[in-house]
Amino acid sequence: MLKFVVKRLLWMIPSLFAVSFLAFVLIQLPPGDFVTTYIATLASSNEVIDQNTAAQLRERFGLDQPMIVQYLKWIWGIISRGDFGISFEWQQPVSGLIWERMALTLVLALVSLIATWALALPIGVYSAVKKYSIGDYTFTAFTFFGLSIPSFLLALVLMYVAAVEFGADVGGLFSPEYEAASWSLAKMYDLLTHLWLPVAILAISSTASLIRVMRANMLDELPKPYVTTARAKGLSEFRLLIKYPLRIALNPFISTIAWLLPNLISGSVVVAIVLNLPTAAPLLLQSLMAQDMYLAGAFVLLICALTLIGSLISDILLALVDPRIRLE
Amino acid sequence: MTDILSIAPRSSIAPGKPLLEVRHLVTEFPLRTGVFRAVNDLSFSIEPGKTLCVVGESGSGKSVTARSILQIIDSPGQIASGSILLHRPDGTSLDLAKLDPRSRAIRSVRGRDIAMIFQEPMSSLSPVHTVGDQITEVLRLHLNMSKAQARTEAISLLRQVEIPNPEQALDRYAFQYSGGMRQRAMIAMALACKPQLLIADEPTTALDVTTQAEILDLIKRLQQSTGMAVLFITHDMGVVAQIADDVLVMHHGVAKEYGPVEQIFHAPQDPYTRMLIGSVLKLEQKAEIRLARPPLDTSAEPILDIRNLSMHFGDMKALNDVSIALLPGETLGIVGESGSGKTTMGRSIMRLYDPTGGEMIYRRADGKVVDLAKLEGAELKAARRELRMVFQDPFGSLNPRMTVAQVIGEPLLVNGIARGRELDERVCHLMDQVGLDPAGRERYPHAFSGGQRQRIGIARAITLNPRIIVADEATSALDVSVRFQVLDLLMRLQDELGLAYIFISHDIGVIRYMCDRVGVMYRGKLVEMGEADKVCNAPDHPYTQALISAIPRPDPRDRDRSRRFRYTEPSPYTEAGNVKNGSTAR
Lengths: 328, 586
What we know:
By secondary structure, chain A is mainly α. Chain A has 16 helices and 2 strands. The relative contact order of chain B is 0.11.
């Protein structure tokens, strides 16, 4: 087991290098660079920059060097100093920019994940056990609504309702007066009052799909002979459900951890933009549009690292939970 | 081993007070189109210490009967009427049919008064819990034992069912056990609370005959030491003859005949029972079709000559230096238990596997000789047209999304031999040949019964006028009354088309009925080879002798178990993969 983990960790190193290089190349593939985008932005406000200034800018950002040199400089900075470079657009170190937003991203993602699982797992089990009952049909109807309504539309509608009907302050995660304030109990409370709306929106669509998955998993497991064996032993329905089929039906969820982590960053871009949330996703989108290559590159690298770590964690958890994987 | 109870016919069914009385039981499954009665007005009783066998073909309702007793019928089935009276030793009686399937009362009966074991020991145990966990669970539930007590008790239970090193075995998982071990663990679990009645639903069907014999012995011995009654459900008349005191024959949910085992086998009253016994006895001898044939020309050049064939999967030698020859028009049987390499052999001949060593010399119709083991490309394709295969599972081997006409006609279509109207005509002709009505050719496989599906599989195999057909357990999934019909069909086609068969089976009865010569395989090696009569009746090799001795004879007067023994390999060679048998084909 330990050998397996070490081996996997060692393999992550070359994969990360390969992915970071690919990411770097991909970001540079569109014609032009940050300076062209910058000039275009200035031109739209009637400021003209001559060729010399542009060249100076390129030299200052190191954009005049060959791509491979730029890449090596960047990656060496990361390895030797943990320096992900400077964001052109923000004129700040990339790492600072990202970490600033990661905390809130994490809070939002975890809260909506817990909400999703807490709702979806029991409902999915209920739907499977009471297949074709009125309760099952009701939840099925709900899940189809949840699946078919795009989350940004839901966001808009809920924002409208919350703002117009209840006069709530929507958009963002803080009221303006707390935006720049340091952390205090009052700010925490302010966060909670803002958090429910994005959590609800994010949870609804993922709950819907998770209910369907859980229901299908349980329906696969329920007719298995080992469930009948447990029943023939005299176990109560509830105890046997929890101990046997549920335990095995949960396995597929553990594999979902692999894409849960990268979703922290890139998931729910549209909702985050619509709701004006200070999370990582809008920043990623903006950096890509501005060809802010160090910021974008750092994001892509982070997403890849999280994917690799996520799949490692889910593999380890699967092996711990399922003896068939551990022992065969 | 203790002697078997006297088999003298008993005067009546119930002299003492029975343990369980089932009266006019009706179990129904409500369907969209109406109500299906799986069990219809069934009455029987079981006395303490006795064995009642419920026998019947698939769909007879025997499993539903067993599940009705414990109220664990699969949804949406339910008991519609009738009573199931359990007479407890303290004098109280309980009508199980009146209890709610989820009530505390029925739960206290399950596992404590009445325990059950099932057919497929692998899937009947949880894959993610240790065997010990599953045994101690029932002890703690019904007997309120502490963890430590339950563990000690579970170890002694495992010892009782003869599982070696029970202390370690307790902490293992079901998939680390062999098939026979799993069934032993199931039995240990069922016997944990010393039930008065053990319901065994086809407990040995998925096991090899030698393992089956051991499990049957084990159940018998435990029954004698605890005095429990056994309700044994099976489709195998041989098993019934060996273990039953009383027999209940079921067909389509109704009892056809109910009486002492002696009467069922030697004086059956009901025509269905007679037919069932007749089909079983038929497989005890050579087929009539074969008796009418002239003797096989043994001087002819073999059509397929396998020399020193080996197939290794890593360290596992699935085929170890096997040499065997197939004569034109011959039926060659390959017999062996799971993991013996017989399926690997069939697949190697079809070149579904690339053998790791040896030759397979195939003599083509024009007299040219090729080595199948080395053929590639177009030549391999051509050879595959002449070698066809019939598979075991009539459900899994037909694509459910293709009509029967498409299934049968596909080889003609992909080889560019026929299309359109000509294809249709040939498909009709083929269906006629295998005894199917061509009018059903536009239907899908689910509309056909197991026996009919196997006929479809055979029609597909003979589509391209092959010369050799490899039949891998082609009849093991079929009911006994259908089994010999399919065998007769194969032999008729053999006469008509001049086919040679390689007939792979674990069933000696089928081999005796069908085959000219037999090869016996054991752990990848061919241990014996000879005339079918000789191998089936007076084998030379000790392994074959052990195999033959383990087969339950369909005659209750012939219950001598003393001649049964288990073959152990004489050489010091030890098998690493002993814990788990290598066959996945079954």
